[in-house]
Amino acid sequence: MSPTPLPADLVLSGGTVLTLDPAGSEGTAIAVRGGRIAYVGDDDGVLAHVGPDTRRIALDGRAVIPGINESHLHATWLGAIWPATIMDGLAGGSGFAQSTTLDSSEQRRAAILRAGDIAASLGITSYTEPGLGPGEDDGATGACGSDVLEQYRALAAEGLLRARVTVLMLFGELDGPSALGDFRRGMLELADTDLDSEWLRIGGIKVFADGIPPMRSAWIHGHYPDGSRGELLVEGADDVEREAAMRTMITIAHDLGYQVGVHATGDRSIDAVVDAVADLDRADLRHYIIHGDLVSRPALGRLAALGMGYNTQAGLAPATRGMLAATLGDEAAASAWPVAAALAAGIPVCLSSDAPVLSPDWRVGIAAAAELVGESLGDARETMLALLRAYTVNPAWQDRAETWKGTLAVGKAADLCVLARNPLEVAPAQLPGVDVDLTVAGGRVVFER
Ligand SMILES: [Zn+2]
User: Which of 228, 251, 297, 390 yields a CA-CA distance of 20 to 30 A from 114?
Assistant: First the structure.
């Protein structure tokens, strides 16, 4: 007989547990102890984990999936303006609070806490805050400067973070220019920063290569109707200097052991990033392209071969495809955001919202992605599995944390999302109507509907 396990803090049983592991294993029950998963299996087996103080939750046919990892979420900014979004604002929606600026530490702390509530209510247990740093200390939002990192640090120390946070440092302006001198200085100072816990870590460095295609600020091989072709945002006298400066930034970060996430939307800027990474000496840092709207098919193959990631927002397709078609033509618009081709190339694609650009609701993101991939990933069930992995397993890879989060397995972090229905039995378009009933982060219930 095996020894009796120590009693669990929390047991959920009587439903479907989708582990999202490579084999696609399922159970009906899961037990949590000390912030880790103690058991995944059937309802009989979980009984051995029930003690007098164990909280038991009857799933009644509901489903448990790994906690959602929103791999590109400007959470502090979201906390400042939600439920407004940038996209609604562009579409003329009411309540757009573009002028909202966080101008004190107290406001920033409150916005982070509010973002934590929003995340918890959506089953999000990890997110990447993509771009905090000194270049935004006087920025328009007040939500991306150095003080935000200090507020995160304080909240983590107080145990008040509701989701695990990966920060990408930014040594330039958000959606704006950066200079090599500032970058070097920032990286030097970063060397003294020690921030690497399971709740808050500096995962890497954000670089803005270019802008976005509808604004004609994506750097492209072709040209826009006015004959222009965009340019890199990294400062330099001409294309050659700018590309060399960006390459140096990526190399500096890489040599210091930091992952680099590059905002690159134009095919030419993406190729420049891939060229830079191809010259580096190791693949384990998992540098990645953010957005990648106009990534070419050959570039997808190179990303896969180099062990790079692709982090994109399927929800941008319905929201901006018309604008893209008006700018670059129907053909370019039709082949943008190639999620299916990226997955087929073997890239662990991460889907994200870029909230508050879009709503942070990953269920809406999955519905949009399903529309984008059509039937290329298989039937509805296979499509749902692949897209769920793009919000759990693949972002854990991006976080270089797949050994301890991203799937449901004994010993891994007890980060769970309970859905009112089994998502594998729901058409992706219907997923936004499936409630998030419960969120558990690090074994703690952080949301209950
Ligand atoms: Zn962003």
Answer: 390
Q: Which tokens belong to 403? A: 């050994």
Q: How far is CA 293 from the centre of its chain?
A: 16
Q: Where are the alpha helices (DSSP H) in 202-296?
A: 239-255, 267-278
Quick one: how far is CA 215 from the chain centroid?
Answer: 24
> Is pTM, for the whole model, over 0.70?
yes
What tokens does 110 get? Answer: 């409150």
pLDDT digits (tens, 9 = 90+) for 16-29: 999 999 999 999 99
Q: How far is residue 208's CA from residue 71's CA, in Å, rounded to a whole number? A: 17
- From the CB of residue 423, how many other CB atoms can be counted at a distance below 10 Å? 24
Question: What would the pLDDT profile of 357-378 be if each residue is shown by its tens digit?
Answer: 999 999 999 999 999 999 999 9
Measured in angstroms, how far is the CA atom of residue 357 from the centroid of ligand 1?
7
Instruction: For residue 65, list its beta bridge partners.
Output: 417
User: What is the CA(248)–ligand 1 centre distance, in A?
Assistant: 22
Taken in order of first residue, the domains within the chain and their CATH numbers are 68-402 (3.20.20.140)
Q: What is the pLDDT of residues 220-247, one digit of tens each?
A: 999 999 999 999 999 999 999 999 999 9
Distance 301 CA to ligand 1 centre (A): 24
308-333 average pLDDT score: 94
- Compute the distance from residue 298 Cα to the ligand 1 centre, in Å: 25
Nearest by Cα to 135 from 100, 182, 167: 182
Partners of 130 in beta bridges: 168
Place of tokens 């979420």: 73
Distance from residue 402's CA to the centre of ligand 1 (Å)? 23
Spell out the residues 6+ positions from residue 282 whose beta carbon is closer than 8 angstroms to its own: 254
